[in-house]
Amino acid sequence: MKLGKKITIVMFLPLFFFAMSTCVKDNPSDFDGIPLEKKDSISLKLISAINSDSIKATATWLQRMGTRFSLADNHRLVAVSIRDKFKRNGYYTAYIDSFLLSNTWKSQNYTTWQYNVIAQLDGSVHPDSLSIIGAHYDSNVRDGDPFKKAPGANDNGSGVAAMIEIARVMRLKNYVPGISIQFVAFAAEEVGLFGSADYAAKLAYSGRPVSIMINNDMIANVTNPNRLLWEVKIKHYSNSEDLSEKASALCGKYIKLTPVIDTSGIKRSDSYSFFLKDYKAIYFESASSDYNYHTIGDLAVECNFNYCKLVTGLSAAMLVHSD
């Protein structure tokens, strides 16, 4: 989750986005999709393959990078590492998309290239149409120097780990969606949602149809030891109330989490960038407050990855049911 700062972004539109605008023919609303019974079967198959230890390993791997602060010297290496992890999971065309960011941090001016990471699972019916699942990979701290240490296991290693886990199990189970799924790791969220703003702007320019955008941010924190009382915040926008209804239904059907509809703070995470471009987006977050938020204590050992697994399963089911 971001801390607000005054920042200017300079966006460049790569040629591949220009090309998209001339060849888009498909509309996800024209695709009836697979029968509900089959969606149930597929969802259960994917959810059963999601592994809490795998999610924990990815969040710990991200934490061990030391910092993922967007202005730190290693910020491109972080993006390359995430891209390569997608490739190891079978997404061989995963790539980095760059944008130029000019901003001021603590009275010092910075101009840096920032890097979103994108992997795609091609659709079999309408490959030009998209479902999107995203999470920001950058981190920040308020109790230290983010250039040196910002572990960010929950914020937002958990969201990135969930996204990578869904990508992994979809390959493992040979899932082929009707419309393409893009997995997007966003840069520079903590300093102003700029990675998602750049991606959403390019997407809007391309004219590529989008069925849904799912955002996971801080999904590994739960304070109640009673599993039966675990809750998940489901955040929607004025154009996506139906997505909250669908997510709430899926919670009861597959996940056994209690949904809490909450529209507070919806401007503070990457899904907001998509709403501003008129895309329908939904945002999942732990219902419990995290006392390690933006501190050097935001470590994997403090996270609950059994809980994170359930929210990951909810996101996977939403992708299947939005196909």
Q: Would you mind describing this structure in some detail?
A:
The structure is a single chain. With 323 residues, this protein is of the alpha/beta class. It has one domain (7-321): 3-Layer(aba) Sandwich (Aminopeptidase). The chain has 9 helices and 9 strands. It has helices at residues 15-20, 36-49, 52-63, 75-88, 153-172, 194-206, 241-255, 271-275, 305-321, and strands at residues 7-10, 95-105, 108-121, 126-136, 179-186, 210-216, 231-236, 258-261, 281-286. The chain has a 9-stranded mixed beta sheet with strand order 1-2-3-5-4-6-9-7-8, with helices on both faces. Helix 2 packs antiparallel against helix 9.
Short description:
The chain has 323 residues and is α/β, with parallel strands linked by helices.
What's the layout of helices and strands?
Blueprint: E1 7-10, H1 15-20, H2 36-49, H3 52-63, H4 75-88, E2 95-105, E3 108-121, E4 126-136, H5 153-172, E5 179-186, H6 194-206, E6 210-216, E7 231-236, H7 241-255, E8 258-261, H8 271-275, E9 281-286, H9 305-321
